């Protein structure tokens, strides 16, 4: 069987750490994507969130816009938010038929209980529908900052079994992590991941530049640690004045310096909390600076 291609060429280290990045949009962000598109490389994977306040039509329209603009759509499937098997099936079939989707991201989602028949990611995988409709690669969540409801040991076990399940179904597995602010945390987690025998490529979740207040709001909402000491490491010297903007410069520098073969196949995934265009401009400027230094 062919190994599905999930972009980029994971066997070549990136010239600049931001090369081969992926990015996320909400289903409401079609205009923002259009605005950012001229700055994005063709085939850039673009994840489309599965949030309350969106509906199936919006999510499909967003995936279609990603495809139309020449990028690779990766719709999120939030297991706990599907109200029925039918709703899941309709989404799976339609994203393939209408947006030529080849890869998806499956996550439990934030509801404390399932709102329909799927308690978690494994329940979605177990339907067998993803491979049946032609999906070639499945992303799953990684939690380097820990998971609110699982011990670290349970997290590793679940991660390993999801990767094995995806591969045994003939699809490529991909881990996309929750965002974070502490590069050492990510590097340690990646090293442990590889020591535990998980070879799946990882996309590290990096927050795009955004107002500090907004970053902290998202961190609280998503259960991501943002203590004063972690934020200081990130480059935010004080949490008393929330008027400023914070970018991931220091964190991405730390990945450029710290990532090695022991961390396996790694690229970045941007969560553009301060807007897609602002994130793209940041990536462009960062890459240009690195290339200048290297020249
Ligand atoms: N992009 C991201 O990184 C996103 C992360 N999340 C967070 O990640 C978590 C999902 O983790 P996955 O690795 O997909 O889990 P999973 O689907 O592999 O499930 C692993 C175990 O965690 C339990 N679990 C999952 N979500 C739960 C929740 N909200 N409350 C209580 N127990 C839960 C499941 O029942 C299962 O036993 C969610 O709980 C959510 O907080 C949610 C949406 C997006
Ligand atoms: N636990 C958890 N749940 C999530 O839903 C989640 C994560 N983690 N990790 C990162 C991604 C990023 N997520 C999101 C969630 C919401 C918006 C968003 O723009 N929401 C509002 C605006 C809210 C605001 O500004 O406070 C919207 O209009 O939909 C963007 C990315 C979803 N994701």
Overview of this structure, please?
With 295 residues, this protein is an alpha/beta fold. It has a single domain, classed as TIM Barrel (Alpha-Beta Barrel), CATH 3.20.20. It has helices spanning 30-36, 56-68, 85-99, 121-126, 129-132, 152-168, 183-195, 212-222, 228-234, 249-258, 276-294, and strands at 22-25, 45-48, 72-78, 103-107, 137-142, 172-179, 202-207, 210-211, 245-246, 266-271. The protein has an eight-stranded parallel barrel with strand order 1-2-3-4-5-6-7-10, surrounded by five helices. Strand 3, helix 3 (85-99) and strand 4 (103-107) form a beta-alpha-beta unit. Helix 1 (30-36) packs parallel to helix 11 (276-294) and helix 2 packs parallel to helix 3. The longest helix has 19 residues, at 276-294. The protein is globular and about 50 Å long. The mean pLDDT is 95. The structure holds 1,4-dihydronicotinamide adenine dinucleotide (NAI) and 5,10-methenyl-6,7,8-trihydrofolic acid (MHF). 1,4-dihydronicotinamide adenine dinucleotide is lined by residues 79, 107-110, 112, 119-121, 141, 149-150, 158, 162, 178, 223. Pfam families: MTHFR (PF02219). GO terms for molecular function: FAD binding; methylenetetrahydrofolate reductase (NADH) activity. Its cofactor is FAD. This is Methylenetetrahydrofolate reductase. Keywords: FAD, Flavoprotein, Oxidoreductase.
